[in-house]
From TrEMBL:
Gene3D superfamilies: Glutaredoxin. It comes from Candidatus Magasanikbacteria bacterium RIFCSPHIGHO2_02_FULL_51_14. GO terms for molecular function: oxidoreductase activity. It holds the Pfam family Thioredoxin_4. This is Thioredoxin domain-containing protein. The lineage of its organism: Bacteria, Candidatus Magasanikiibacteriota.
Length: 249
């Protein structure tokens, strides 16, 4: 009788291997998906529901502690009183339009808004003055404050906006990186390090945050355009409409 070759076990056949791979992928998906469902169910029942909702926000980072506060569209206060001596500014000081921008460097929505708003700043420089205000949402952005302190220390050497650009373009906020950005801009590192390590502008960052709360900001990005509050990621076309309306008033 001719020799009979031993039959391969099913899981060693090409079809069996493919079947096992498909089953493994499905199992991994089910485990991961099930874990996420369990985690978010637990968060909704026992955890911080406001923070969870924030993660799924489509337009801006909301500080959970301010989520329920009224957020008026028209500002009654004189916004000029919120421009502090330490506030970095860009554009014409005598411009008919003033924009207070409340920003958290670690906020993903501020990062998404960065490029279009930079174009707005450059286009409207003769007719709009931009004033930077810090609004670090520290509960979910633990590095936002030190990024803000680093930028203010760059402002001491008239390099705020250059440092601002680097922060948004690199999106890395660890201490070593913040120092590297200062060196890259040619800052006096003795002065910058002394300023940064002493947290020279911490009180000023806290003041900016309180200014934002007083003006109805609940998160970032928030902009006060003359006496109109707009927030979230705003398209270039919408910015053109808003600014042209303000200049015509």
């Amino acid at each position: 009788m001719p020799d009979v070759l031993p039959q391969k076990r099913w899981y060693r056949t090409p079809g069996g291997v493919i079947f096992l791979i498909v089953v493994s992928v499905i199992l991994v998906f089910v485990i991961v998906f099930g874990g996420l469902i369990a985690y978010y169910t637990w968060q909704l029942k026992f955890g911080n529901a406001e923070e969870l909702a924030q993660r799924f926000s489509q337009n801006m980072t909301v500080d959970a502690s301010l989520a329920e506060r009224p957020s008026p569209t028209i500002i009654e206060q004189d916004i000029q009183s919120f421009i502090r001596p330490y506030s970095p500014t860009f554009g014409n000081n005598d411009a008919p339009v003033t924009i207070l921008m409340f920003i958290d460097f670690e906020c993903p929505f501020c990062q998404a808004a960065y490029a279009s708003f930079r174009d707005v700043m450059e286009t409207y420089e003769p007719t709009a003055r931009v004033v930077f205000k810090h609004f670090p949402v520290t509960a979910i952005h633990p590095l936002a404050t030190q990024a803000g302190l680093a930028a203010q220390c760059a402002n001491d050497q008239n390099k705020f906006w250059e440092y601002y650009n680097i922060l948004f373009e690199r999106k890395v906020f660890e201490k070593n990186s913040l120092g590297a950005y200062a060196r890259e801009l040619g800052l006096d590192m003795n002065l910058w390090n002394s300023c940064f390590e002493s947290k020279k502008y911490l009180n000023q960052l806290n003041q900016d945050f309180q200014d934002g709360v007083a003006l109805g900001a609940r998160g970032t990005p928030t902009y006060i355009v003359n006496n109109r509050k707009v927030d979230g990621v705003i398209s270039r076309e919408e910015w053109d409409r808003i600014l042209l309306e303000e200049m015509q008033e």
